[in-house]
Amino acid sequence: MTAATLAHTPAATTRSRLVTGPLLRLLVADTGGLTGFYLLLSVVPLYATSTGVGGVGAGLATGALMISTVAAECVTAALVARFGHRAVLATGLLLLGLPAFALPLAHGLPALLAISLLRGLGLGILFVVCAALGAALVPADRRGEGVGMLGAIAGMPAIVAMPLGLWLAGSAGFTAVFVAGGVVALLGLVAVPGLPGRRAAGGGTGGGAGGGAGGGTDEALGLTAGLRHPGLVRPAIVFAATATAAGIVATFLPAAVGHGAGTLAGAGLLTQSAAGTVARWWAGRLGDRHGAARLLAPGAILTAAGMLTLLLVGSPIAVLVGMVLFGAGFGVVQTASMAVMLDRVTATGFGTVSALWSIAYDAGFGAGAIGFGFLAGWTGYPVGFAVTAVVVLIALPLARRR
After folding, report:
1. Could you give the 3-state DSSP secondary structure of residue 52?
2. What is the pLDDT of residue 264?
3. Helix, strand or coil for residue 237?
4. Which residues of the chain register pLDDT less than 50?
5. pLDDT at residue 137, as a whole number
6. Could you give the count of Cα atoms lying within 13 Å of 366 in the half-sphere of its Cβ?
7. Which of 138, 155, 384 is nearest to 253 (CA)?
8. Which of 69, 80, 324, 396 has the greatest number of beta carbons closer than 10 A?
9. How far apart are CA 255 and CA 342, in angstroms?
10. Residue 217: its pLDDT value, please?
11. pTM
């Protein structure tokens, strides 16, 4: 081996640095906002039920949150282009945190829906800015792993905060959960000043420029053009179908298990979040090696299997097994769908992909919560879970198409 060869060998084998200072600050802001969101996610429907609005009202509260989230996601990329990442993300954290303090005063459905709509605007901003900026801050040669890592870290608040919120509501009351959720979301503001303003710096800016399996799209790709792009829409639909199940689980699992909701439902949500977090990171690493598109179908099948297991919702073992299967499948689809979509646009299209992916998540999540509220009142919870599994499987052919 020559001296020249030796000199170039380390550079050829050195992988790009995955975690940088701006990325760490983004994770702090994202974690704060998501912790505030997940603390309240399963508690607000229980609170709605306790105020006398019933299961339909509980579903509408989650649905209102998701509807306004989708509305915010449709315009966030344009807002970032005009005002920059920092200003828009700060606004999102304020909208997510401040209205939570008014929840103890919301004793009727109109007030509850109004607060949910405001918080949904903040959540939509958080989702789009953090996903797009995160994708731009990770190196292109490790994008799948980076997306999986970001997803896994973003899943940590769900692991801790969803069961913690239920426990805190049972032990300290609803007001304590609402105040905690508002405070934690606002704490994310401390990391915002250190983030990039309008353009992300780092190795991620060169990714996906026509090099993906699906071919890069026009650099001027907007949301409307993205909705006409089959290579983006198909994985987004698969993800939306699995997100439907996620909305149902988060909103109705405590009510479905009935007795011991604070313990069994909390354990189920904890199990689901933990399985999903591991699956998201694993799917990113595997997708970099073998292609993320290959993981969509197995992830959807696991998601459906988890929902079918909830036919035995009266059994604690069935609930926990179902949550492992569902969490793993949903985690795989989350990472795989995002990685596939990012691979099919240039770096300037990351905002559009982030918006489409987030819209798929929130539209599916909200539709699941609203639709299941009516369906379960007619068929009961077990049959409703089975119908949800069928909805997920209907999208399976799209996962298999290149």
Report:
1. coil
2. 84
3. helix
4. 1-13, 200-220
5. 82
6. 22
7. 384
8. 69
9. 37
10. 39
11. 0.73
**256, 304 in Cβ contact below 8 A?**
no
Pair of tokens at residue 48: 């709605």
Structure confidence at residue 123 (pLDDT): 93
Close Cβ partners of 270 (under 8 Å, ≥ 6 residues apart): 159, 162, 163
Sequence-ordered list of residues with C-beta below 8 angstroms from that of 149, at least 6 positions apart, any chain: 18, 138, 281, 284
CATH architecture of 22-400: Up-down Bundle (1.20)
Q: Which of 325, 127, 149, 130 is nearest to 242 (CA)?
A: 325
Determine the pLDDT at residue 108.
83
**Contacts for 55 with CB less than 8 Å, ≥ 6 apart:** 49, 252, 255, 373, 376, 377
- Helical H segments across 173-208, by residue range: 174-187
At residue 92, what is the residue type? G
Query: Residue 360 — φ and ψ, nearest 5°?
Result: -60, -45
Q: From 167, 152, 176, select the one nearest 34 (Cα to Cα).
A: 152
> Residue 402, SS3?
coil
How do the domains of the chain map onto residue ranges? 22-400
What's the pLDDT tens digit per position in 321-336?
Answer: 999 999 999 999 999 9
Kindly list the distances between the CA atom of residue 198 and the CA atoms of 79, 86, 278, in Å, as whole numbers in the listed order.
11, 8, 32
Q: Of 57, 44, 62, which Cα lies nearest the Cα of 109?
A: 57
Q: How many Å apart are CA 247 and CA 69, to the nearest integer? A: 13
Rounded Cα–Cα distance for residues 225 and 248 (Å): 30
Residues 6+ apart with CB under 8 A from 46: 58, 166, 169, 174, 254, 255, 261
